[in-house]
Fold:
Amino acid sequence: MSLNDEQKAEIEALRAQSAPTRRATVPALEEMLYTARPVLDHGFVRVIDYMGDDAAVVQAARVSYGRGTRKVSEDAGLIRYLLRHRHTTPFEMCEIKYHVKLPIFVARQWIRHRTANVNEYSARYSILDREFYLPAPEHLAAQSASNRQGRGMVLEGQEAMEVLDLLRDDAMRAYDHYAWMLNEGGEGEVVDPGRRGLARELARMNLTLNTYTQWYWKTDLHNLLHFLSLRADAHAQYEIRAYAEVMLESVAAWVPATYAAFVDYRLGAVTFSAAMLAVVTRMLAGEAVEQKGSGLSKREWDEMMGALGRG
Amino acid sequence: MSLNDEQKAEIEALRAQSAPTRRATVPALEEMLYTARPVLDHGFVRVIDYMGDDAAVVQAARVSYGRGTRKVSEDAGLIRYLLRHRHTTPFEMCEIKYHVKLPIFVARQWIRHRTANVNEYSARYSILDREFYLPAPEHLAAQSASNRQGRGMVLEGQEAMEVLDLLRDDAMRAYDHYAWMLNEGGEGEVVDPGRRGLARELARMNLTLNTYTQWYWKTDLHNLLHFLSLRADAHAQYEIRAYAEVMLESVAAWVPATYAAFVDYRLGAVTFSAAMLAVVTRMLAGEAVEQKGSGLSKREWDEMMGALGRG
Amino acid sequence: MSLNDEQKAEIEALRAQSAPTRRATVPALEEMLYTARPVLDHGFVRVIDYMGDDAAVVQAARVSYGRGTRKVSEDAGLIRYLLRHRHTTPFEMCEIKYHVKLPIFVARQWIRHRTANVNEYSARYSILDREFYLPAPEHLAAQSASNRQGRGMVLEGQEAMEVLDLLRDDAMRAYDHYAWMLNEGGEGEVVDPGRRGLARELARMNLTLNTYTQWYWKTDLHNLLHFLSLRADAHAQYEIRAYAEVMLESVAAWVPATYAAFVDYRLGAVTFSAAMLAVVTRMLAGEAVEQKGSGLSKREWDEMMGALGRG
Amino acid sequence: MSLNDEQKAEIEALRAQSAPTRRATVPALEEMLYTARPVLDHGFVRVIDYMGDDAAVVQAARVSYGRGTRKVSEDAGLIRYLLRHRHTTPFEMCEIKYHVKLPIFVARQWIRHRTANVNEYSARYSILDREFYLPAPEHLAAQSASNRQGRGMVLEGQEAMEVLDLLRDDAMRAYDHYAWMLNEGGEGEVVDPGRRGLARELARMNLTLNTYTQWYWKTDLHNLLHFLSLRADAHAQYEIRAYAEVMLESVAAWVPATYAAFVDYRLGAVTFSAAMLAVVTRMLAGEAVEQKGSGLSKREWDEMMGALGRG
Structure:
């Protein structure tokens, strides 16, 4: 992550400001506000603003005139109840806004979550930074043999080196040509008065998908938890999971009771189908059930056994 | 609007709290926070929380590291440009939350705006207040003769009196029977130990549609402006317009530059069809155009002439 | 359910029409098209239109040029996989449209599902039918003693009779006064030339919440399944569950492979929290776990034991 | 656009199928079904399925038991009224599904329309085709001098040639390296048994943004018209406008009455702000208004004069 001096100064100016407010305020999240938390090689996540806290969930669930909260333990109990029974609307009453810098191929996965507000840096209007994602050696993985959309073992030796070289060289060359076609100068480029320069909205098509973009992304707590339950999951691609994990920390600071319930009822939870439940019931009754005859496919059986720690 | 002493105390407690925050803060809206602003005979609108300000719109449009604002006049100019060209996403970066008390038939219109978060007081779970909307004499209007979904002249004399008596008596009787069927006591009711009492989720069906309900309603600035452009409009039913007008005041306090642009480009604006434009162009060229031969229907002609102040 | 002769003729005319189409077509759903299936005492559900079938789910998942399907068993396997792993977007590729007649208090629950398209019969514009819901004796239940938003035992004898009389009389009186205030004649009403008549948008406020309304409601298969998983559930209020159950039958006819997967992975499935999983794992290892010391609350323990058939 | 023989056969098989249906059917759109209509150099748009027609809009607006239509002229009049007054919900009752092949940088603009259902070809799971967009000479434009997000004059001579060479070479090299890193063979590639091959979800990051992707995209008629009003507009980037224009033709075939109203009230319409209206009114009264003293900025003045054909 490379912030220039002007950007650092802007962030410091925001952090230095303080005003009194009557709104719900969370000191632990205030402490994080505006700071860029690094992700991958050049990306970051910054919390820009928030609205509400654990008590706002309770307040909305009770449609109360005041804060609506009682004892801390009662509030946490209500929050657990709401999350367990998927009464999701009270969690929609909290809102958070992030500034994120991320590779374009990650942005393309992320944007599929439609229930959010987004303003992306426009490459029609502006020129993108000369930054692209290159996997660290331990993330340079081969295709998984068993899972058509997953990774397997890490590449090593010559192959790893060659792959990294290709990724770096192609991204740099594509960017250099992007800058040349624009013919707008900047970073050591000299404007050639003999060329008009290609329109920005066209030149960008030459960039590779690991080029970094950035956006403001805002969503409510319910939709954020849904995003995180999918993207902080072991099946998510590593590069988006890296962002989800940093965002989880902001949730823990912001709404600790909701976060604890989320860890128990979502991140750590497992859904058993009707057929799986029947198998577990038989097993609990002391029966020795095998996959054959269980009514489950091999794949379902393995998923269930994995969840029960018998994988 | 009748708040009881406990509710007033809860509101005062919220207004008395203050905490320092690094977030964007709007003193004019802080001043309104939590206070119940009366609407109709028993309803109210309270601002409960907000996120962002005019500068947050600019900040998101520029995807900037700091506030992203320059001179006040430049920021206002950008906001006007965004609103005029329907670049709506930066306005989605601000969020506001209201607590509203409103008659059920108004709530049914309001809820059709889907891009919002809502927690309504549950009559499955709790008992509704004994409050119902009765129109003030000047709002007791006859069906419009010209518009199948509008109002015409105000009812007068004997008819007005009889209508008001019916509305009041039916609402009160329905509520009395609701309370009797529940058999849960409260407000001078005595519990009859010989009756089980009807389930709340069933008893509520006896209430009339002018009974008041309440909810927490949260939305972003773009969707709020869309709601207000439809509901603060002269074609909206008076009873929902009354709410929209109070909410407009909170927008004016919260985001004054956006509000000014909204008044110019939405509330006071008119859209001319291709055919209307052709007529205006001919008129500007000095031609005396009549409805017959204009290519416009009588109704379109009247709408256009009304917009041009020649109605 | 009472359709008049004109309505029956309109429905018959629609059912009599037939045209050749290249689109995906489902004979079992065609057979149901337009027919009103009764729900509650005066309500109904009619399938008006649909788009897609099981194969369209497969086609979208594969982004194929043709139908994208292979053997029936492979397609069903893919559908099961998608549903199990909550890959929900392919199910959004099918769409269905219903015409529903339902009591207003049911409509108010239903409309909270925002991801749908709705056109409701407008009582601002038109006059509602003289029909209201009265529970059958076996559904006239007392408040639950254990669940603040549920029903307990059925009311009996004198109390049941009195409650039914009140519900019927209040609904009829409110409707009679509604018709009188409108002063528009119809159904034995005589227009009184000495009265202007109250505007429809106002008069409707006198109706009780068990009055029937109707709407066109359209949604995609993913959101329909979500709706049904909540509303066909035992915790849903009986009156909306009655609609959900009829709609489930249309899903079974329309997309049988999706329906089968839905029954296994949603309707019959249970989600165990991390703490519950730990308990099940200990029990499977032969340990005698009790609620005390399980880390689960009494309520969670009961829910888990209920799911395991040990309630 | 290059469909291989297998794809052509699959499309022909779909076009050859026919089944009787009771649903609303539109012969003019049936005629287009499944056929790939070329866009840009390798892209296409295919209509895959649809639901509803002009009459379905009327039917929903009237919440009728039958088709709800009367005379063709009355129906068209109602549709015009609905569109003019932005009563948008009846248009949500029609749905259409497209299969689209498009460059990734176009897909990134398109996806910002959130109210749609999308299934994109997954480059985590599959290998993308070796196809990328190269602008035709007449679309190879310089940056606009006056508009920061628009195009100006066309590039010519040496510069045009060099730009095209760079775009082609970089895209081809990036794709070749993508294929090499995957090490999965195909199209003349030989698998190297000495390399594991990079995971697909990583290798894709090497592709340039003009690489073609494809998706199934489904939306309702209201949201489609909104999409088209923005993307078939002169301010839209040419490459997405090319798709919008082809889709407009499918709308004209599908719902001709809605299409005609859309052309008049949206595509050809202009919104005047309160300040602009005041100016037009003064001009119609014979006053010679100049920009200075009009209350309009230079930019607004030019936009208004342009709309009035006096640009």
Chain B is about 45% helix and 15% strand.
